Amino acid sequence: xxTDSKIIWEKCLLYIxxxxxxxxxxxxxxxxxxxxxxxxxxxxxxxxQFFYEWLEEHHLPLLKQAVLQEIGPHGKLEYAIVIDKGNxxxxxxxxxxxxxxxxxxxxxxxxxxxxxxxxxxxxxxxFDNLIEGSCNQLAKSAAQAVAKNPGGTAFNPLxxxxxxxxxxxxxxxxxxxEVRTTFPDKKIAYIASEKFTTQFIEALRNxxxxxxxxxxLTVDVLILDDIQFLxxxxxxxxxxxxxxxxxxxxxxxxVITGDCAPRNLxxxxxxLLSRFKWGxxxxxxxxxxxxxxxxxHSKVAADGINLSSELINYVATHVDTNVRELxxxxxxxxxxxxxxxxxxxxxLAQQVLKHxxxxxxxxxxxxxVLQQQVAAHYNISVDDLKGKSRxxxxxxxxxxxxxxxxxxxxHSLKSIGAYFGGRDHTTVIHAIQVVEELLHTDxxxxxxxxxxxxxxxxxxxxxx
Length: 464
Ligand code: ADP
Ligand code: MG
Prior knowledge:
CATH topology of the largest domain: Rossmann fold
Protein name: Chromosomal replication initiator protein DnaA
InterPro entries: AAA+_ATPase (IPR003593), Chromosome_initiator_DnaA (IPR001957), Chromosome_initiator_DnaA-like (IPR020591), Chromosome_initiator_DnaA_CS (IPR018312), DnaA_C (IPR013159), DnaA_dom (IPR013317), DnaA_N_dom (IPR024633), DnaA_N_sf (IPR038454)
CATH superfamily of the largest domain: P-loop containing nucleotide triphosphate hydrolases
GO biological process, one term: DNA replication initiation
Mean pLDDT: 84
Main location: cytoplasm
Oligomer: single chain
Subunit structure: Oligomerizes as a right-handed, spiral filament on DNA at oriC.
Low-confidence stretches: 98-117, 358-365
Strand content: 5-15%
Distance between the termini: 56 Å
Bound molecules: adenosine-5'-diphosphate, magnesium ion
């Protein structure tokens, strides 16, 4: 039934969302619509063939895991792909997902990674796809040593630190994934500090502190990501200290990440910080040019996309902050190219990067004027247009406004998002996709759009 599929898919999304960055989640999962659910087969509709291929390439393990959790070992996923948008009466084409390589037993023991939400790892974070450079050499080799012999090296705890997007989560999860492959019996817990805190508070509220703590006391590898979030949270630190000591005494492996060196971590108890001296502390630096080039090479190769070395050098030269940003630019490039159905070339890269690097302040009035015009046309206030309301008429107006702004200004998707109450650029991509689709399939909508567009055009020419 219709509602069934929605509910199941929403649960799947909840799981998937926890495993991905918001940007990736929004780009690739928000546009998916649950279609139906029958005989264990969940059908989801994706906007294009490209979309389908991307999901298969990049997110298959996650999708499988989500389906396994929500439907069970016999659950299957099927895609409905909108292949041809031009044809009004088109039926979406169904493509079957490749069959799962043998179902994973669900409740056969507490050791399966799927049986407990806190023990989840993102299967895409591996040592294999982590490019090595001088920026991360020590961290990577220490992490690999730890993964080969958890609890048995001098690197306990292993503390990894560095700024955002430099690979802390990737490397710490790679430890977990590798241990899981090499020692299937070992119990691994990966937990972000924020989530650890929330769980703890919930346990306090529900009188479950005992069982909350126990689940961590029985692991072989504990990975605590972003420890800086425990800053100032005295009671959470207290409980973590307890878990830490217990595991360390049992020679269980502990991996911790943070955004700066232990001595600079503010708001953490000294006795906890001093424990880090027992093991190894390794820092992650910004990747140098050669490493950035290698990272781009590996990302695009994984996507089956061909970029000239000129283009790769161009991106590597201009994006020198961190790997997440680099990935964001690549995703942007791919999304732009697929939206506009054009090739990825230097010109497009320049365009995409221009928006990221600098914004044109003289256009600010234009965006606001456009917002006013669209709001007036739909008879709603600009605040509502920019606001959070999900009422149909607001959403329709908002999406049209985003589309028009993209068309009539040079603002980046990110910047447009900022003008709509700080929405993410992927929301803007989605809006543009929706409008494009409607323009092709709904003549009435197209007519209305044209009316607003005419108004806008005439006001632009009048003002010059
Ligand atoms: P952090 O946790 O330090 O903020 P992440 O581990 O989330 O950073 O890394 C950000 C993104 O960059 C992830 O998608 C990760 O896979 C990727 N990444 C980071 N370092 C590398 C690397 N050396 N090679 C390939 N990908 C990397
Ligand atoms: Mg992280």
